[in-house]
Write a structure and sequence with these properties.
Layout: E1 11-18, E2 21-31, E3 37-47, H1 55-59, E4 63-69, H2 71-76, E5 80-85, E6 96-99, E7 106-107, E8 110-111, E9 119-123, E10 132-135, E11 145-146, H3 152-161
Parallel strand pairs: 6-11
Antiparallel strand pairs: 1-2, 1-5, 2-3, 3-4, 6-9, 7-8, 9-10
Length: 170
């Protein structure tokens, strides 16, 4: 039987990346523009022990990236565990995400990944209708976080290697 888990804003999770190597992620907010999925931030904070972690120190560390994910799936898959809660700062600047409207890139039922000028951007927490076209990626807009809802194992892959292990548009 799957253990029921309640997830609230500020919850911090520890991911076991490989033997004794841990990184942390935190639930920041829900994003109505992406199926009300959970926006997380992953900290650039690594440990080689899971004993007595100072979560305030973790939450004040550098942010490696933001992403959309369904946290319960990662818990159910055993990829991360909830270890506490640190309130989200009141002056949080919501991350900016980017995506491509997939309906324009489907051929014969398959998504065609290619260079595109169809990019859209939005700030987390905005509605789906507030996404703005940005065209081709510039040096600035290329820094926006990918806005797709990621599978938990893709989050782990990015935590390990620094990039997602899947094709995407350029």
């Amino acid at each position: 039987m799957i253990k029921r888990i309640r997830i609230i804003q500020g919850d911090v999770f520890r991911a076991n990346l490989e033997k004794g190597r841990f990184k942390y992620l935190q639930f920041v907010m829900l994003d109505p523009a992406q199926l009300n999925s959970q926006v997380i931030r992953v900290f650039n904070y690594e440990e080689y022990s899971n004993e007595n972690t100072d979560l305030l120190k973790v939450a004040k560390s550098e942010i490696e990236f933001y992403a959309h994910v369904f946290l319960k799936w990662g818990v159910q898959m055993g990829l991360w565990e909830k270890v506490g809660n640190v309130p989200i700062e009141s002056d949080l600047v919501q991350p900016i995400f980017r995506t491509v409207p997939l309906d324009k890139h489907i051929e014969k039922g398959q998504i065609t990944f290619c260079k595109t000028d169809d990019w859209l951007a939005w700030q987390a927490g905005q509605s789906f209708d507030d996404r703005k076209p940005i065209g081709n990626l510039s040096e600035e807009t290329e820094k926006y976080f990918l806005g797709s809802i990621m599978a938990p194992h893709d989050i782990i892959e990015r935590m390990k290697s620094g990039s997602y292990n899947q094709p995407y548009f350029t």
